[in-house]
Design brief:
Largest sheet: 9 strands, mixed
Number of helices: 6
Shape: globular
Radius of gyration: 22 Å
Length: 343
């Protein structure tokens, strides 16, 4: 749905002894490390040079925002000190392509309502939006009185929350309806696992509905034999992803049917390698080095990892000895921090 280099770049501490760093250095890192990642995802994007304060404070707890011009809009990029005396460069705002928003929103609305709706989000077709921003997309194909849907930007990765549509009730598996009705009335809602599991799987698959190449990685869902989901109670189900299990926190939701939050991130090693290659290729180009770069993140196509866990990739540059690159999972949404070596 969004354009986000699914990584945050770890920068070296190059500042003075009082804990600051040159803004020009950080600008260089943004332009040579982040920008190539955006262009890998959409080569047609118009991206200008970044702008940072002349000096950036790296005191603990301090955060400085630089800006990057994307399609004539300013995308904020944070410079965040780390405990190791280095700093991370992280996208603060969502960068959304409306074509992707329309496809993903249509898929989610169908999952929620069972009705084929056609969102039309209008211009501009690429938008930089602050987290928490609300915007509306026109809706075609719905019943009378449903002219638009309100979307809210949940995070910088571009996840969106869709507001309720008047006159359209949530579409959930018939077996779950009695438990949802009891939940809405504040009564006991103990749901059998065979009733809960298919609904959880349906919700989980909405995130990849528009990416058929990924659907085959997702298998069955296993939930406890019975789960008391009364009020704000929750349970844990497991979704089979390739040969691994993704643990999901599950609650009943009167609007969505169920609300799920993953405990781990699902990482595609090929996409991680593509992003890492773009970052390192940018570093080489900035250093005036013209060599081909390949990155290999292992034979396991899908990795299910907890925030804080890391995996190893290998950078191969023509005419050089292969070098290691460590990618660390930042959060359960799948954002990665790449510890990229110098050229």
């Amino acid at each position: 749905m969004s354009l986000l280099l699914t990584s945050c770049v770890s920068g070296g501490f190059h500042g003075s002894s009082n804990g600051d760093v040159s803004g020009a250095l950080v600008e260089h890192q943004i332009d040579t490390q982040l920008t190539p990642g955006y262009l890998v995802q959409d080569p047609g994007l118009h991206i200008g040079r970044s702008k940072c304060p002349s000096r950036i404070d790296l005191s603990p707890g301090h955060r400085t925002a630089c800006v990057l011009a994307v399609e004539g809009q300013l995308l904020r990029v944070a410079v965040i000190p780390t405990e190791s005396g280095k700093y991370d460069i992280r996208q603060l705002d969502a960068l959304l392509k409306m074509a992707d928003v329309e496809k993903t929103t249509a898929a989610e609305l169908f999952t929620q309502t069972g009705v084929e709706l056609k969102p039309r989000c209008g211009a501009p077709r690429v938008r930089v939006l602050i987290v928490g921003t609300r915007f509306r997309c026109a809706i075609a194909g719905g019943p009378a009185g449903v002219a638009s849907a309100e979307l809210r930007v949940v995070d910088a990765r571009g996840r969106l929350d869709i507001g309720p549509l008047p006159g359209i009730r949530p579409h959930t598996a018939p077996g779950l309806q009695p438990y949802l009705a009891a939940h809405a009335q504040g009564r006991n809602s103990t749901v059998p696992g065979p009733v809960l599991a298919p609904v959880v799987r349906q919700q989980a698959l909405q995130f990849v509905r528009n990416d058929p190449a990924r659907l085959h990685y997702f298998g069955s869902v296993l939930c406890p034999a019975r789960s008391d989901l009364s009020g704000a109670k929750h349970t844990e189900c497991r979704l089979r992803v390739a040969t691994q299990s993704l643990h999901l926190d599950v609650m009943l939701d009167d609007r969505l049917g169920v609300k799920i939050n993953p405990h781990e991130a699902v990482i595609e090693s090929k996409r991680a390698a593509e992003n890492a290659r773009a970052i390192y290729q940018g570093r080489l180009s900035a250093a005036g080095i013209s060599r081909s770069v390949a990155v290999d993140c292992g034979s396991e196509r899908i990795l299910v990892l907890k925030p804080g866990e890391a995996f190893r990739c290998t950078i191969r540059v023509s005419g050089r000895t292969p070098r290691p690159l460590i990618a660390t999972v930042s959060d359960a949404s799948g954002e990665l921090v790449f510890n990229v070596p110098d050229p």
